[in-house]
Structure formats: C-alpha cells, structure tokens
Design goal:
Layout lengths: L1 H33 L3 E6 L3 E4 L2 E16 L4 E6 L6 E2 L4 E5 L2 H36 L5 H34 L1 E3 L4 E3 L9 E2 L7 E18 H11 L6 E5 L5 E11 L9 E8 L11 E7 L2 E9 L4 E3 L2 E7 L5 E5 L1 E6 L2 E6 L6 E3 L13 E4 L6
Parallel strand pairs: 1-22
Antiparallel strand pairs: 1-21, 2-15, 3-10, 3-14, 4-6, 4-9, 5-8, 6-7, 8-10, 10-13, 11-12, 11-14, 12-13, 15-20, 16-17, 17-18, 17-21, 19-20
Helix pairs in contact: 2-3
Length: about 375
C-alpha cells in the first residue's frame, strides 16, 4: 500500500513539473513576441579612407640587350669584370682586327685606282668636247668618251662605298656596350672563333637596372576602382616592399597598364618604374608593389562578416524604419581592411545587421542595437 502511495505522489510531482515547464515556455514565447530580439546594426555613413593596396610582382631591368659580335674573328680579350657595371660606349671585347685592317687598306687602294682612272677619263672627255665642237671626231667617239667618264665616276662611288664598309667592319672588331648596365657572365671565352657565320655571335648580356621595372598584376575587381582613382588630381604612385614588409624603394610610378584582362587569371598586368641607384633590388627578385596616393572620398564600407553570398550575388540584411529585417542585394569591389567597398545597393543611413545573421530572416521584427564602425 505504501508503494502505491509513493508512486501516486511521484506522478503528481511530475505532472506539476511538466505543467510548470509548459507555463514557463509559453511565457518566454509570449515575451519574445512582445519584445523583438536585440540585433547589432551598423549605420552606414560616407567616409574618406586611405587605401593600402599591395600586389606581388617581379623586378626586371628597364632595358635588357644582348651584346653580339657583328663580324667573324678570334675573340682576343675581355675588358670588363663579369657581373660588374659598365657605361654606354665602354669597350667590352676585342676581336682580331688584322683581317679587317687589311681589307680597309685594300679598299683604300681600290679607291685610289678608281680615282686615277676617273681623272684620266675626265681629261679624255674634256678633250673630246673641244675637238667635237670643231668637227674633228665623230659623234660616236664623242659618246664613247662620255660613257667612259661616267663609268669611271661610278667606279669611284663604288670604291668609296667599299672603303666605308671596310671601315665599319674594322670598327666592329671593338665590341662596345650599347647601354649602361650590369653585365652577365661571358658566353664564350677568349680565343674562341666568334661571329654571325659561326653561330656564336652572342658574347654577353647587359641589363639596365636604374631605372628598374616591376611587373605585377591587379585583380579585375580592383582595377575598375583604380581607374576611377587614377583619374583624380593626384597621380598614382608606388613603393616597393620586400618580403619582410620593409620599404626598399619609394617614389615610383605606374607607367603601364594592359588594355585587356587576362582571361586565365582575371587580372590586368601593370608595370611600376623606380629609381634604383646602387642596385638594392636586382632583376628577377620578387617583391610587393604598394600603391600610394590612394584616397577615396564618400566611401561606403560594410564589414565583410555582414556580407553574404546568394544565387544572385552578394547581399546584406538591413533594418528598415519599422525595425523589420529586409534583404538588400549589393555590389562590392575591393576589400578595405576588414570591410568591403560597396558601389551599389546601399545608401548613407542604411542600418546593416553585423551579427546574428542566422537568427533573423526578412520580415522579422528586431530591436536594433547600434555599434560603432571600425576604423579601416
């Protein structure tokens, strides 16, 4: 009998407990319906922000040339230190000049012979003119004398051209630097037979490192915004940073941007040019190009955490004047710190939900809790 009484008492306690829980849940539900949940919102206002955009790039010489032998011959000596700097016009190599010196002397002798024959023909022509006027020679003899004189004059012109060609070839035996720059390792050693007909005309390479070019790629999403910024009063500048973030070169400028977007990478190729005295940065070195003079006025920034992606693209959830959640599709371009730069879909004064996005849905009433925007 006592066990039955105990079981009955336990059932009564459980029933009272369940009734109490149901009442508490109902009370909480009623309270939730009467008081919308608090949600953090950010009120957008236009700001002026300074952008710090950096892109990976690779340095290259502003001018890179191949130094080649233009005549055949034995390479006698090298005048520069491999890897050293040379000035434009400095002698780099000597090719054996003797065959070309002989060719020049032969050309000079041919010119003297041609000039002697020309003078003889000139005198004969002058005499034929005089006697032809008196009718002492026939017209055929007169024409022959004139043709001989003209042929002699042409022979002199040809001999002068041959002499000039011989002089030029002799000059090519002294190989000079076409530009100022840093030399590479020599391709062939002294004593080798070089020249265009030998297949070994390449002697060394020269790279001009001051100024220095840095080739980099701008994402397509950033490029449209940068085009707008570059149209402002201050031109786009550039700085060069190494892997540790230290600034190596400053005062650079953007001197080239491609006219098309690379379909494979979705980027636009660009080039920055820097003064590089002392060669602190070498061609082939990887670095980062930081764009300077980037100030954006009246910018609307939305925290990246508040932006979601849907089938139609990016969107945010905002709170309207009636404190109801609404769906807002937006267009973003570049990232600014932890924010996205919004170019369409939002206006100044919009209240954007920044936290608890999964707890709300469009049309739901909420209690806005203002938050302070972060500094970009």
């Amino acid at each position: 009998m006592q066990s039955v009484n105990r079981s009955f008492a336990l059932l009564l306690w459980l029933g009272a407990t369940l009734v109490g829980c149901s009442r508490d849940q109902a009370a909480e539900l009623a309270a939730a319906q009467a008081s919308p949940p608090p949600i953090e919102v950010l009120t957008l206002s236009p700001r002026t922000v300074s952008l710090d955009l950096q892109y990976p790039g690779r340095a290259s010489g502003s001018r890179e040339v191949e130094v080649r032998a233009r005549v055949d011959g034995i390479l006698l000596r090298r005048h520069y230190q491999e890897g050293g700097e040379v000035k434009a016009g400095a002698v780099l190599f000597d090719i054996d000049p003797q065959p070309y010196q002989v060719a020049l002397e032969r050309a000079n002798a041919q010119l003297q012979l041609a000039e002697a024959l020309w003078r003889t023909a000139q005198r004969a022509w002058e005499r034929s003119e005089a006697v032809f006027a008196k009718g002492a020679i026939s017209e055929a003899d007169h024409d022959t004398a004139r043709s001989t004189y003209e042929q002699a004059a042409a022979a002199v012109a040809l001999a002068k051209a041959e002499r000039e060609a011989a002089r030029i070839n002799l000059g090519y035996t002294s190989v000079t630097a076409p530009i100022s720059g840093v030399t590479s390792r020599e391709v062939v050693s002294e004593g080798s037979l070089v020249g265009p007909s030998q297949g070994t005309s390449l002697l060394t390479r020269l790279v001009q490192t001051d100024p220095l070019y840095v080739i980099f790629a701008i994402p397509e999403s950033d490029y449209s915004a940068l085009r707008h910024l570059s149209a402002q009063a201050d031109p786009l500048g550039a700085k060069l940073l190494l892997g540790d973030g230290s600034i190596t070169l400053e005062g650079g400028s953007i001197d080239f941007t491609a006219s098309t977007v690379d379909a494979a990478t979705g980027t636009v190729q660009a080039r920055a040019v820097f003064a590089n005295p002392g060669n602190p940065v070498l061609p082939g070195q990887f670095a980062r190009v930081g764009l300077t003079n980037l100030t954006l006025d009246n910018a609307l920034l939305v925290p990246q955490a508040a932006v979601m992606q849907g089938p139609q693209g990016a969107f945010v959830l905002s709170v309207n004047a009636e404190n109801l959640v609404q769906f807002m599709p937006i267009t973003t371009t570049m990232a600014v710190g932890s924010d996205w730069l919004v170019t369409a879909g939002l206006q100044s004064g919009a209240r954007i939900i920044t936290k608890g996005l999964l707890k709300v849905q469009p049309g739901m009433p909420v209690t806005p809790v203002p938050v302070t925007p972060a500094t970009p």
